[in-house]
Specification:
By secondary structure, the chain is an all-beta fold. The protein has no helices and twelve strands. Strands 3, 6, 7, 8, 11 and 12 form a six-stranded mixed beta sheet that branches.
Length: 140
C-alpha cells in the first residue's frame, strides 16, 4: 500500500549572511536580517546570501527547490534540487532547509521574494525588501 503524500507546514524564514554547520548537528546563523535590509548604494552585491526555512510535519518523498525572485518577478537564482524523504510519525518534528547562494546582486531597491517549492508546488513565499540606508544608518 502506497503511503499518502502530505506536504509539511511552513513555519518561518530567516535570511542572513552565512549558515555554518557546527558540531552535534547545530547550525549557526551569522548576520541575521529582518524583513527590511538596508544597503549603502545600488547596485549592491552580497558575497553570500542565505535562507534558513523551517517546516513541521509532512510525509512522503519530495524534491525541494528554493528560488530567489527580484522586484519584477524574475528569477535571480535557484538552489539545486534537494531530495527530501519525510517518513516519520512525529507530526511535531521540525525540519529545516539551509541554503546559501552568492554572489547575489540587487540592482535596485524593491520587494524581493524567496519561494520554496516541493515537487514543483509552491509551499511558501517569504517577502523582504532591500532599501538604500538613510544617512548615518550604516557604520563605515
Amino acid at each position: 500500500m502506497e503511503s499518502q503524500l502530505e506536504f509539511p507546514q511552513y513555519v518561518d524564514t530567516l535570511i542572513c549572511d552565512d549558515i555554518r554547520q557546527e558540531i552535534n548537528n547545530k547550525l549557526s546563523l551569522i548576520g541575521v536580517y529582518g524583513y527590511r535590509i538596508y544597503v549603502k548604494e545600488f547596485p549592491y552585491t552580497f558575497g553570500k546570501f542565505c535562507a534558513y526555512q523551517s517546516f513541521r510535519g509532512g510525509r512522503g518523498k519530495f524534491t525541494a527547490t528554493i528560488v530567489f525572485v527580484d522586484s519584477e518577478g524574475k528569477e535571480m537564482t535557484r538552489s539545486p534540487e534537494m531530495p527530501l524523504d519525510i517518513s516519520h510519525d512525529d507530526q511535531l518534528r521540525r525540519m529545516v532547509f539551509a541554503v546559501g547562494v552568492g554572489p547575489l546582486k540587487f540592482d535596485k531597491p524593491g520587494t524581493y521574494e524567496i519561494r520554496t517549492a516541493l515537487n514543483g508546488k509552491d509551499v511558501c513565499k517569504y517577502v523582504f525588501s532591500i532599501e538604500k540606508a538613510p544617512p548615518g544608518a550604516l557604520s563605515e
